[in-house]
Amino acid sequence: MPRFSANLGFLWTDRPLPDAIRAAHAAGFQAVECHWPYDTPAADVAAALSDTGLPMLGLNTVRGNPGENGLSALPGRADAARAAIDQAIFYGADIGAGAAHVMAGFAAGRAAHDTFISNLRYATDRAAEHGMTILIEPLNPYDAPGYFLSTSAQAADIIADIAAPNLKLMFDCYHLQIVEGDLTRRLEALMPIIGHIQFASVPARGEPDRGEVHYPHIFAHLDALGYAAPLGAEYRPQGESVEAGLGWLSPYI
Ligand SMILES: O=C(O)[C@@H](O)C(=O)CO
Ligand SMILES: [Mg+2]
């Protein structure tokens, strides 16, 4: 049976993060994940995770200055990128998070590639000290025009190049349906390097029971492939509340 993680960067954003964790638990999610939890004391997050028994699957490195979307592929910004990596890993270790998503940023070209590789080597080494995984995520060019990492092939090449056992692909079905499609075969092919899977309807990025992707098929197929980790519900609720749109979850709890 598929299991699900509530992405608290998009779900229950109307309340403090510890309360969002409790709401996810009450709704039947089996894990949570977040984007940028840094304004909340780690002890408060850890307490909510302990109270509910939910694991925190991951968090993101900070985006950087206004208008930026990550720092790790930006030439000349290694100090800031590595501070962001350290912050994510230390905060993640304090709350028992399994992974940190290292955000590349808006950049292109050889220097950006080399910078990203260098910062990812740093990140995988630091994360290994805490038993954590580093994730990289291709983003679609409608939501993130100019983002350095935009295809699964580019991510796979980087992962092969670095060859660290704790560097994995964040396969966001929403982004990759837009960029590449063929989700069923692509999930199968990339399974050896996938560290986390996220989903949302396409194109609206809402609940998964609408739009151009038939997620019951994707969820069942992943289950049949033996993928047992919780799948990340990273969507913007389209209705009155998160709870009002959770009909898609009920067959699984
Ligand atoms: O898909 C996304 O946008 C997120 O997973 C993320 O971490 C970058 O904003
Ligand atoms: Mg995502």
TrEMBL record:
Coiled coil: none annotated. Its EC number is 5.3.1.22. GO terms for molecular function: hydroxypyruvate isomerase activity. Keywords: Isomerase, Pyruvate. It holds the Pfam family AP_endonuc_2. Gene3D superfamilies: Divalent-metal-dependent TIM barrel enzymes (3.20.20.150). GO terms for biological process: glyoxylate metabolic process. Residues 21-250 form the Xylose isomerase-like TIM barrel domain. The active site is at E137, E234. Belongs to the hyi family. This is Hydroxypyruvate isomerase. The lineage of its organism: Bacteria, Pseudomonadati, Pseudomonadota, Alphaproteobacteria, Rhodobacterales.
